[in-house]
Amino acid sequence: MSYVVCLPYTYQPYFDECRTTMRFDEDRVLIVDNRPPHNMGIMRAHNLGVDFMRQQEADWLIIVSAAVRFGHHGGL
């Protein structure tokens, strides 16, 4: 079973802190910059994650909020 991660964000400090605690493989993570003027809305960002999942032929899409802080295992 393979996975991809979709990480949309609007607030840079939250994004930076979230990324420091994640241990997902970089090539499996889709980062969606939703800060103005790039903001496309959260559902469109999630749909980009679905597109990414299909492109990677992954079995699972994990949507992560930038407000999440992972523990020792980094989400794995």
* Major sheet strand order: 2-1-3
Structural class: alpha/beta
The biggest sheet, with number of strands, parallel, antiparallel or mixed sense and barrel status, is: 3 strands, parallel
Contiguous helical run count: 2
**Which sequence of SSEs, written as H and E, runs from N to C?**
EHEHE
Helix content: 25-40%
* Uncertain runs: none
Label the overall shape.
flat
- Strand share of the residues? 15-25%
End-to-end separation = 13 Å
- Determine Rg (CA atoms, Å): 12 Å
Mean of all residue-level pLDDT scores: 96
Tell how many strands the DSSP assignment holds: 3
Task: Write a concise keyword list for the protein shown above.
alpha/beta; three-stranded parallel sheet; 2 helices; 3 strands
List the helices and strands and how they pair.
Blueprint: E1 3-9, H1 12-21, E2 29-33, H2 42-56, E3 60-63
Parallel strand pairs: 1-2, 1-3
